[in-house]
Every structure is written in C-alpha cells, then in structure tokens.
Amino acid sequence: MAAIAMPATRPPLRRRLLGRQPLGYLFVAPYVLFLFAIFAYPLGFAVYISFHDYFFAAPGAVVERPFVGLQNFTDALADPVFRRAMLNVVTFLIINVPLTVAVGLVLATALNAAIPFRTFFRASYFVPYVTASVAVIGVWLWLFNSGGLVNNLLGPLGPDPSWLINSSFAMPVIALFATWKQLGFYILLYLAALQSIPKELYEAAMVDGAGTVRRFLTVTVPGVRPTTTLVVIAATITGANFFTEPYLLTGRGGPNGASVSPVLLMYEQGIEQGHAGYAAAIGVLLAVMVMAVSLVNRFLLERS
Hints:
By secondary structure, the chain is mainly α. The chain has helices spanning 13-18, 23-50, 71-78, 80-112, 118-130, 133-144, 149-154, 170-195, 199-207, 212-223, 225-240, 244-249, 262-272, 276-303.
C-alpha cells in the first residue's frame, strides 16, 4: 500500500517569532540596546531636528521649535561654505581611500612574509593607530610648518606659503596624515585575510612561472577582494567624518575654508552658533552621501 502523506504541521506562533532558541535574544539584548541608545536614537533625533528651527535651551524651558520642512536642507545646499566642505571631503577620499587600499595591502603582504624583525614592524605600523590624534598631530605640525623638517629638506623647492597654510596643499597633507594614522588597522585586516589564501595557489603560480608581482596580482589581490570591499567602505565612512585633523592641523579648516570638513562645520553651526537644525541637516546630507558612495563602491568591487 502506498504510504499516506501526512500534512506538514506549522510550528507554533511562539517558535515562528522567537526561533528555536529564544534564550539567544537575552544574550544579544544588551548590544541591541547599546546600538539603539548610541546610534539609532541619535540618528532619528537628528533627522527630526533637521526639519525644525531647533536650538538648545535650558533644561525645563519651554520654547518654540517650529517645523520648517526642507528649509534647513535648501539653506545648506545653497551655502558656499557647505559646498566647499563637501568638495574637501571628495578630495580627501580620492587621496585617502586608494592610498589606504594600495599601501595597506602591499605592507600587509610584506609583513606576512618571513622577514627579519617582522613582529617589530607589525607593532610599529599599529602604534600610530592607537595613539591619540592630538599627540601625533604635534609631530606633523613640526614636519610641515614653515620652518619644519620637510621644508628644510626641500629647501627652495618647498611651497610658499607652507603646506598647512597653503590652500592647494592643506587638504592633501590632512589626507596623508589620516592615511598614516589609520593604516595599522587596515594592515591587520589584510593580514587576517592573507592567512586564508591557500598556499597551494602560490605554489601553482610559481610552477606556471609567475614572478613575485604576477603572484601578487593574480593570487593575492583576488584572494583578499572581500576584505578590500570592507576596507574601502570603512575608509570612506571614517574619512567622511574627519574632524580633529582640520581642527588642529590647519586651525579650524584654514586657510579660508580650504580644509573645512562637514563635521567641523556641524560643530561650528550647532554648538558654537546654536543653529542645531541647520547642523543636523548637514549631518543628514553627509550621511546620505556616505551611504551612496559606499553602496556604489560595494557594487563596483563585488561586480569586478
């Protein structure tokens, strides 16, 4: 006799909602609350502020904060200072992101090989990342000021005015500083990715006659492509939010706004001048731009 198929019974609603191990939600709850308190709530509140003529008042004070719609956004887009800040971010990312990927991967490949003092070099590249920006900025001020080491080495070839007060070189110097400061973290990411590439691929490439450069391009670069996607997105998000560098290196975004960043502009407008709604609109526009650039980068890298 043919077996009679029994109809599949649906699991109870509790299991469909909570899964087989509902206790897991208890373990992830602290991190979910952390994300909500630190990221989700401030982001939602910033979006709310951006649609109002909002300003900070004393605790308990009742003040009018009228809804202004898209006025803060139109004011920001029409502001030449904001447009200059966004252009500075683009300049920063064009220099910072490719340098981070290229130099980080090359150095990680070198540090992954059996070289003398490998542990020392690995630690040396990571030290700037864990050092406070305020401390290392003093070194760069000494290097790139008018009478600094770089100008002394270049002599008459040094720019006039000097690097950090030159509208053409201030932003590139900041991008180089950020690349050097954060490089240790991305080298660690690439080092972890290099460990997962099978050694048989390198051996097969050597049998086929591939040299060092050829093996790097045909084995290493494709092997770390997922990490490269992560590095590009992380460097884009981090770079678009730079604040300390122009605040300290170039005296709050000088000369004449040549190195001002959107986050620095948000600080000036929202904290110092009390235009919280306008500052929130800048933050929302910056977040939309970073999300768009990150999605485009991810699409292009995964497609390749």
